[in-house]
Q: What sequence folds into this?
């Protein structure tokens, strides 16, 4: 039995779709599902020195339990037999899910919500969880193709190795092919997406650069193919702008997997622009996997 899959719910249609996905993920892993409903604390409800705030103190417990009951019913329908626990937690959704992620194998959230998860992809919640959560974060969005591939964004970074492992394992669990996609251009920093056209930038030897990028892709994939021989892998090398190419690749995919940050960016940056772009614009669910600390 692995650590549970957690899913944040608030009663919105988006969060219930996340429950469906999370239940199936728990079933695939042979783990349990933990459904969490967070109540944001209104400052006026917690006087200085007073008792801890609780939904029950304000007549909100029945509503919260109703939200959880609907979510649990959806989970049982999506994955009959999966073990389920549910919890109402006083606190902002951001902090609650971050704490819950410390003992989870995967966290799942919807793309929009009603209360604590409102504006998830338009605000900072998903970005914060992807950067600070202690387990992979799956954001349920777009229209995934159930017969599509799992797309892995290969960046060649040391931190991205855990994303490679996750993508192979996920493809194996789903019985899906894996597209290992490495996007390159002629800027010296692979993840740089500044002004100008990286396709036409001057380099000393474009053919040599292409060979180096192909070697990076092959080196990244080969070792994990030996660990997961059952996974059919397509190695795809594309010369393009990185973010648009990955977003386009998400069309027809059932999942995109990316590391939290790649080789480019600023030192100390916890979440790169590529991961953020996928969270906002991908056409299917996205899982962001942080490197090991």
A:
């Amino acid at each position: 039995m692995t650590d549970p899959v957690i899913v944040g719910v608030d009663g919105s249609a988006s969060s219930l779709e996340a429950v469906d996905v999370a239940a199936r993920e728990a079933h695939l892993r042979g783990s349990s599902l933990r459904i969490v409903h967070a109540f944001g604390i209104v400052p006026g409800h917690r006087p200085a020195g007073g008792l801890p705030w609780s939904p029950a103190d304000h007549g909100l417990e029945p509503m919260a339990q109703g939200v959880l009951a609907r979510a649990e019913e959806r989970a049982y329908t999506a994955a009959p037999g999966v073990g389920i626990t549910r919890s109402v937690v006083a606190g902002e959704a951001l902090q609650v899910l971050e704490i819950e992620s410390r003992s989870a194998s995967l966290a799942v959230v919807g793309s929009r919500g009603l209360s604590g998860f409102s504006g998830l992809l338009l605000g900072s919640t998903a970005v914060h969880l992807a950067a600070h959560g202690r387990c992979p974060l799956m954001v349920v969005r777009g229209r995934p193709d159930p017969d599509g591939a799992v797309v892995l964004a290969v960046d060649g970074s040391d931190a991205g190795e855990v994303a490679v492992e996750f993508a192979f394992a996920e493809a194996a669990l789903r019985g899906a092919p894996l597209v290992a996609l490495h996007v390159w251009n002629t800027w010296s920093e692979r993840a740089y997406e500044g002004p100008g056209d990286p396709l036409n930038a001057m380099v000393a030897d474009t053919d040599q650069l292409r060979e180096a990028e192909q070697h990076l892709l092959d080196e990244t994939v080969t070792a994990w193919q030996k660990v997961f021989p059952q996974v059919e892998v397509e190695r795809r090398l594309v010369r393009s702008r990185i973010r648009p190419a990955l977003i386009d690749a998400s069309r027809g995919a059932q999942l995109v997997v990316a590391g939290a940050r790649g080789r480019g960016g600023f030192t100390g940056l916890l979440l790169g622009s590529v991961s953020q772009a996928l969270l906002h614009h991908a056409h299917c669910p996205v899982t962001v996997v942080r490197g090991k600390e």
Remarks:
- Residues 206-227 form the longest helix (22 residues).
